[in-house]
From TrEMBL:
Gene3D superfamilies membership: Apoptosis, Tumor Necrosis Factor Receptor Associated Protein 2, Chain A
Organism: Rotaria magnacalcarata
Any GO BP: apoptotic process
Organism ancestry: Eukaryota, Metazoa, Spiralia, Gnathifera, Rotifera
UniProt biased composition (Low complexity): 296-308
Protein name: MATH domain-containing protein
Residue ranges annotated for the MATH domain, each copy included: 111-258
Lineage: superkingdom: Eukaryota
Length: 344
């Protein structure tokens, strides 16, 4: 009986142990299944990530190529813009040159006389003093529709030995369309007149005659010959005075006249104070009449001189009234009339 009870207890214990082992094995199996599932998921994720990595690498390579292409395109456009910039500057210069030519055509003269209106005087003077632009050119003018082409050149702050002390004014002979049939060297007196813009009309007048030995007055081979004229035309101390009569409303007027008729020096003041608004043929007629009047007056004075051994009474001669003109200030020293020349 006791043996049976022991066997039964042993059998029960073995059954319990077997069930525990079976239960543990089941748990282990389930755990293994779970781990296997996790491993499979990790494998799947690894494959997916690997596939995505390959795609990303492909995208990176494509983007790298695109960036290289964009960089090359930017370099090409930059090179293009660098090439366009000088062309743009040239185009702007061409436009400015064309505008200057159009402006020159508005003031072109064909009667050997130029009235040069210089606007923005103070700005141009500051440019000259700072040497941003030391000289300015007048519009071209002509002696006739088929004649010499000429212009003036002005150094507002002076040139050479006259720098910072005087304005320097020069005459420039230019290459013209009809030079082949014109006579050279150029040998005609040039007169400059700085206008007094007040009723006093104390104009500044100076002249010079070309040196025909100089290449400056031979037939031009380039666009312009070297300028020649009067380095010490007008003192800067006077032109810089606030109330000077030669600059009004920031504007200055200069007249350039080329004499092809050998006008007497004594007639120059009269010719230069004539109203510039008169047509040139009217001015020439007035000058001719004035010359004839002076010649007649001189002849009458000679006739009224007493003969040797005779007695005569000289009555005053009342001259014919002239056209109303104001007095003129003229620089007629001997050096000026002999002619002064300076190369610039």
């Amino acid at each position: 009986m006791d043996v049976d009870n022991g066997q039964s207890a042993s059998s029960t214990m073995m059954t319990t142990t077997s069930e525990n082992i079976s239960s543990q094995m089941q748990e282990i199996y389930e755990t293994i299944n779970i781990l296997a599932g996790g491993i499979q998921t990790l494998n799947d994720d690894t494959q997916r990530l690997s596939s995505e990595l390959i795609k990303l690498q492909s995208s990176i390579e494509s983007l790298t190529q695109d960036i290289g292409s964009l960089k090359l395109s930017v370099q090409e456009k930059s090179s293009f813009l660098d090439g366009v910039k000088p062309n743009q500057e040239i185009l702007q210069q061409d436009v400015a040159s064309l505008k200057q030519k159009i402006d020159d055509l508005q003031y072109v003269s064909y009667d050997a006389t130029l009235i040069w209106k210089i606007v923005s005087f103070n700005e141009k003077m500051m440019d000259a003093q700072s040497e941003r632009q030391t000289s300015i050119y007048s519009p071209p003018f002509y002696s006739s529709p088929t004649g010499y082409k000429m212009r003036a050149r002005l150094y507002l702050n002076g040139d050479g030995n006259a720098r910072r002390t005087h304005m320097s004014l020069f005459f420039v002979l230019m290459r013209g369309p009809n030079d082949a049939i014109l006579k050279f060297p150029f040998n005609y007196e040039v007169t400059f007149c700085l206008y007094d813009q007040t009723p006093e009309q104390r104009h500044i007048i100076d002249s010079f005659r070309p040196d025909i030995r100089s290449s400056n007055f031979q037939r031009p081979r380039l666009e312009m010959n070297i300028a020649s004229g009067i380095p010490k035309f007008f003192p800067l101390a006077m032109i810089q005075q606030a109330d000077n009569p030669y600059v009004r409303d920031d504007t200055m007027f200069i007249k350039v006249m080329v004499d092809f008729n050998d006008m007497p020096k004594t007639l120059l003041p009269y010719a230069l104070i004539l109203n510039p608004g008169f047509p040139m043929h009217v001015q020439q007629l007035l000058i001719k009449q004035e010359a004839e009047r002076r010649a007649q007056q001189q002849q009458q004075q000679q006739q009224q001189q007493p003969q040797p051994g005779s007695i005569s009474i000289n009555l005053p001669i009342v001259p014919e009234p002239l056209e109303s003109q104001e007095p003129v200030e003229i620089d007629l020293d001997e050096d000026n009339w002999k002619g002064r020349q300076s190369s610039t």
